[in-house]
């Protein structure tokens, strides 16, 4: 299964949890608790990723990155968005160097 397929399938699963039982689905619990609880988890998971990155342990970096991605996908699903929307934005940016893009912003100031 490709990276895109697994992200797409997970996005669909998360969207399907909108009306699921919060006692049976962690995603449904996050939805029920509201956006602040999702944002809090993203903050916590990012902090854990930073610590993993500082330690330089590759497996932990992968695991913490996965937690961050999952919680970002939950936030997207909460707002009716999905990995497809992120993918579309990535495609729009493809080939535009961050250095060039930043320079074009400074030129407009
Ligand atoms: N990929 C994930 C995934 N990654 C992380 N998590 C959960 O995210 C939580 C991470 O929080 P922590 O590490 O802080 O763990 P914790 O201390 O137990 O959590 P808190 O008490 O702080 O809330 C854990 O409960 C993890 O199990 C995930 N939960 C679900 N998924 C995917 O989402 C699908 C739907 O899940 P449910 O909604 O639970 O059915 C699953 O089939 C998976 O594919």
UniProtKB/TrEMBL annotation:
GO terms for molecular function: phosphoribosyl-ATP diphosphatase activity. The keyword Cytoplasm applies. Keywords: Amino-acid biosynthesis, ATP-binding, Cytoplasm, Histidine biosynthesis, Hydrolase, Nucleotide-binding. Coiled coil: none annotated. It is an enzyme of class 3 (hydrolase). Pfam families: PRA-PH. It is found in: Cytoplasm. Belongs to the PRA-PH family. This is Phosphoribosyl-ATP pyrophosphatase.
């Amino acid at each position: 299964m490709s990276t895109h397929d697994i992200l797409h399938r997970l996005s669909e699963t998360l969207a399907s949890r909108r009306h699921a039982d919060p006692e049976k689905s962690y995603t449904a619990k996050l939805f029920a608790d509201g956006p602040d609880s999702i944002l809090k988890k993203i903050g916590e998971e990012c902090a854990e990723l930073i610590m993993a990155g500082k330690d330089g342990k590759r497996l932990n970096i992968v695991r913490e990155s996965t937690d961050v991605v999952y919680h970002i996908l939950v936030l997207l699903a909460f707002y009716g968005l999905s990995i497809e929307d992120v993918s579309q934005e990535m495609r729009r940016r493809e080939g535009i160097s961050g250095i060039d893009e930043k320079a074009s912003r400074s030129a407009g100031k």
